[in-house]
Amino acid sequence: MMLRRITFVRLTSFLTSCHAYQQVTRLPDRSCCCYPPNHQSMIFPTKRNIQRTGLKRLVLIQVRAVKMPHFYDPSSSANASHYHTAHIKFDWNIDFTTKTIGGAAVLTIKRVSHEKTHPPLILDANELSIQAVKIHGNDVQWKCVPHKHPVLGSVLEVTVPSSDPQFDVEIAYKTSPNSSALQWLEPELTADRKLPFMFSQCQAIHARSLFPCQDTPSVKATFEAVVHAPKEAVVVMGGVRTKQPSVSNRGDQWMIYHYEQTIPIPSYLVTIACGDLASERVGPRSSVWAERSVVAKAAKEFSDIEKMLAAAEHLCGPYVWKVYDVLVLPPSFPYGGMENPCLTFVSPTLLAGDKSLVNVIAHEIAHSWTGNFVTNSNWEHFWLNEGHTIYLERLIMEYLHGTQMRHLLLAIGYEELLNEVNHLGTTHEFTRLVTKLDGVDPDVSYNRIPYEKGSLLLYYLETRFGRDKMMHWLKAYVKQFGGSALDTNSWVEFLSKTLGEEAKEKNVNWDEWLHAPGMPSWKPKFEAEEAIAQCDSLVALFESDELSTKSAVTASVLKLWKELSPIQRELTMRRLNKRPELKHENLRAIDAALELSKQQNAELRFEWSHACIRSHYLPALDSCLEFLNSTGRMRYTRPLYRSLKQWPEVLTRVHENYKNQRPFMHRTSATLLAADLGVN
After folding, report:
1. Shared-domain flag, residues 652 and 549
2. For residue 308, what are the domain limits?
3. Would you call 451 a catalytic residue per the annotation?
4. Which of 143, 365, 453, 628 has its CA 20 to 30 A from that of 387?
């Protein structure tokens, strides 16, 4: 069901710290409406609405209908309907001793409303020590105001002294050692154990603890950065280096780095890392960065980056970001990859040694079009970023490796979707593509639904409207919305417009796909029947009662395993974990034959660990915990800890393991794992 267009209205200034713009469907030129506390929308004071809200007293406010920029983001306090950040100048000093970044951010602010008043500029800020604020070089009044919801942090409210259409706000500040955007690692937690390491992770709403900002995907800005760092360390950022590093004017113990990003990006894509890094060139526009002992292995693993970029350009149009580099982070990084423009962050779990997990690189490359260039307007529409990117990732892999590869990835994705829905529950809010996040930390809502249900919708549309039309639409979509942000309604409107009358004739059930919880009723068919049948044959052998007693069965397992491609092996293990728990003697025989507890492929190691934990196979517990402690990637750690929670006999040891490992975890991982385990 399509929603009606909405009009946004301006409230009187004393409500600015609430949501400055609230939704109404029809509003006369001058009228009265009410804003009950904690209510999402403005309400007209009719008898029905008074009864519906159950309020004893309504505060009436005079409003006037005005056309304003569309801005709604429950995860941001910024008043982006008044002001937009156009450009940012960073002058940063990295201090490993205090575990802080200090300096200044100069925000070039543009007015986007046409009102004669000039309300305060409101920026998101969290755990920042603000020291001074100036506009055009002059001190101005400012204050930090704690937000009512602990997730959103404080706001920095800056008095705007004039009605200039554009002005520069210079903010001197320092981050907190507890900044949720930054992780500081001691040398012993790095691969080479020589220097400390720092990296940022701003998605979803952590940029506000790195710098004061309009921390919403709706606002995009360019940036330039000057960064001072200890001379023995190397600084990399999600932009293009504009000068060679040189000795800082702050002393010969410091080096200075210069970066810029000329394409506007949202705050969550601002990124920085600093440590004992080296790089190797792997293509005409790509280098791989890593610690010195890791960089050669990483460069070999990711040597096909240029082929992937070329495939993505064939599908979506030119790559606009100039360079595409990859940084392999220490193991505590909580994600498989993060699509920072010009500098993708990846987990060392991708270094399988045989390029079997490089589809993650294809995924992050795809984000250069869907996510970074075309962006969800807020985190309620996260599927617009990730669903399109999974869809494009698999098209890239098909372009390079054939149709069967794409369909095996589709099959794996469908298994993931089923698992996630089963875990969350078929009626859970977070199983909808378009979610409600008012008062909810986007990190808490993070799961595989936006990825797999979103990409399944696009694949469904491909089967309904044809491959050629979807490929035409994909290029048109990037061209139409590149450089901007959109919501799901705009997406549906453009899709319907692009596909024309056929879209109306085929009558897609948008309400089921976009707003209903649980699994969609449509089930895909995969063009890889023979390859999938091989996987199922091996699963049957794994479950055989004769596996542990007859050498011929064990030999068949080993033979078939060797015949499978890495992606088939992964699908086999996923399908095994959909089956009932295995007998312990079967698990023992499988590991003896295939040595899965020693696998370098992290996906296989994860699935094997999951199979052992589900079956309460005690001889594998040490191996499972060793794998858990070797990675911070939440794709692995959260499901395994949740499974371990269901094993009462080992729960004390599991809690002790978490407690011992927590100091080495990324803050986001540690918080979410604590919730999964039910511990403080």
Report:
1. yes
2. 276-368
3. yes
4. 628
